[in-house]
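Allow me, if you will, to draw on your knowledge of protein folds for a short while. I have a record of one protein: its chain in single-letter code and its fold written as discrete structure tokens. I should value your view on which stretches of the chain appear to form regular backbone elements. Thank you for your consideration; the sequence and its tokens are set out here:
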Amino acid sequence: MHELVKYVMRGPKQAILLASISVMLPMMFWFGAATIALITLRQGLSQGLVVFIWTIIPALGWWFGLQDPGALIVLISTFAMASVLRYTVSWQSTLVTGGVISLITGLLAPYIMPEMIDMLMEMGEVMLQELAKNAPEEYDTILDSAFRTLMIASFAASFYGMAVGSVFLARSWQARLFNPGGWQEEFHQMRLSPRFVMGVVLAVMFAASISIEPVLVLMIATVPFIVCGLALVHGVVGKRKLGGQWIFGLYASVFILFPTVLILLVVLALLDSLVNFRSRIQAQQ
């Protein structure tokens, strides 16, 4: 991986080649997005834009050829967040940028990926009918609508999470090459402000009044809270020098106890945003 990153930094041709090939490969577009983010973070918006423009060509192929706009959405969101991070050096502003793009994605999803949504709706129809067999007259109007809304919100939040992960990966590459240890320190200090929390609460409360599904806003908003919850745990483990087994246990529990652990991470990030108890933890010498 380190050699690939060094290859990317040799010049724009190398970066374009590696990013484009990554997007062409199934489920590897996140690597291409991280490559774009690395160039943007290190060399600026103009150089990142060049790589981005060439890389969206195979992403458009996925969209028009297989009706899958996921790669294109992640590339756009990653490039936008990397640009904001470079010029603001603020992770909160970066996450807000990704959240806005994700919200727009959720609103446009019925128009940009109708075939995929219809296919998944057909796959879930049997399950929904089984759940609604005691109330068949409510199937079309309640369960079908709720499932479609939840599925669109899941798509938007998933693309958002992939884009955040790509920016994280690019930032870690940048630190490894030019600032060893810098990414760990930056990640451990990541937290959201009380103003951000109030903004999320207000957005969820008033979403329905402007014809936006509150579920969509809520699921998108959980992504930065989960990220900052993970940063909180990493930061506490690092401060107290508890060892890597705690981090391994955290991610193992995410897979085993999903979604309970994710909810716990959201709660921890919320509390830390309001009272900043992380700063009160004494570092272990």
